[in-house]
């Protein structure tokens, strides 16, 4: 366990401010460095054709994964893999990701597992590269593991896909007597949502509350294509100016995990469709009340975006959250347009 704590601490401290290169160029250079660092056998595990179905096979539970896990990399290769991750995230996002990985050490202690246990394993996070980074054809990459799944796609020098993005936290708040005690990785995701739902008057809550029962997981789970049967909740224009400010702060909490260029891409897309098209929906027992330690589910939904948050398992101390682009998960919408144009 000590080895893993040292590894994660080193990765956290290794964060460096992004250069002035475009994020797509940084990402490509980092991916190429990572691939070049691998031997032939490692490449067989890590590199897939871009059109492989493997690109869409993701999950957030502990399971056997394809790709090249951190445990099968030497320290230099691990450094290259994490450098690739850094190119796509903000400092805040990178810290959340490495903290999520480190929670595997907490679960080993809480569940009385041995130090070499492979079910709760901070080195069982796999990196995969799809396609040839060195040419102008589409390519992408992924990191996938327990409570963590990030996907990025690139085409003609531009990042065209940055979702699905899954971040989870078990425990939501670390209460065990371990070095991480008191840590709450997804704190703002809970605090801002609670502030918003508790600010609603009775008429507003009647619109926002879609169920008195909190689901035990995000609705879309790990599906290839995210879909919610219907858009429910209170719309952005139906909020007061103060509530709208809280709503936007909550939305930005998720987008701020990305590199600023990618955040702005997504925000510009939302503004183009119209922020007034966004709705906020909540599920939970109003008789029990809405607060920490009580089952809670919410989502932000619009024509192009879906954010889900669920904290119901383990006595409401086990968080799942996801960002989905309803038109462009895995970069598929922009890829379809590209292929259509190329065909012409």
Automatic annotation (TrEMBL):
Q: Which InterPro entries match?
A: DUF3500 (IPR021889)
Family annotation (PANTHER family): DUF3500 DOMAIN-CONTAINING PROTEIN
- According to UniProt, the name of this protein is Uncharacterized protein DUF3500
């Amino acid at each position: 366990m000590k080895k893993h704590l040292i590894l994660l601490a080193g990765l956290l401290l290794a964060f460096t401010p992004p250069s002035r290169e475009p994020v797509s160029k940084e990402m490509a250079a980092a991916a190429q460095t990572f691939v070049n660092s691998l031997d032939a056998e490692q490449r067989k595990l890590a590199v897939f054709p871009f059109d492989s179905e493997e690109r869409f096979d993701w999950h957030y539970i502990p399971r056997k994964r394809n790709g090249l896990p951190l445990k099968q990399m030497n320290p230099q290769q691990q450094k290259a893999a994490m450098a690739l991750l850094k190119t796509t995230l903000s400092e805040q996002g990178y810290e959340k990701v490495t903290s999520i990985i480190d929670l595997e050490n907490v679960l080993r202690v809480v569940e009385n597992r041995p130090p070499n246990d492979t079910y709760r394993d901070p080195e069982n996070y796999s990196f995969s590269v799809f396609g040839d980074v060195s040419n102008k054809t589409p390519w992408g990459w992924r990191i996938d593991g327990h409570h963590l799944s990030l996907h990025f796609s690139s085409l003609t020098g531009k990042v065209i896909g940055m979702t699905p993005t899954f971040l989870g936290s078990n425990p939501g708040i670390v209460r065990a007597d371990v070095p991480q005690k008191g840590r709450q990785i997804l704190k703002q995701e809970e605090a801002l949502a609670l502030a918003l739902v508790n600010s609603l008057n009775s008429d507003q809550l009647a619109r926002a509350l879609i169920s008195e029962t909190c689901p035990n997981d995000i609705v879309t789970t790990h599906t290839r294509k995210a879909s919610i049967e219907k858009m429910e909740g209170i719309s952005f224009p139906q909020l007061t100016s103060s509530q709208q400010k809280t709503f936007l702060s909550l939305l930005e909490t998720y987008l701020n995990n990305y590199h600023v260029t990618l955040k702005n891409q997504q925000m510009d897309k939302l503004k183009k469709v119209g922020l007034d098209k966004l709705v906020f929906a909540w599920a939970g027992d109003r008789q029990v009340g809405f607060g920490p330690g009580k089952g809670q589910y919410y989502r932000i939904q619009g024509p192009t975006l879906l954010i889900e948050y669920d904290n119901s398992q383990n006595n409401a101390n086990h968080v799942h959250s996801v960002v989905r682009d309803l038109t462009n998960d895995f970069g598929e919408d922009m890829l379809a347009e590209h292929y259509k144009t190329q065909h012409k």
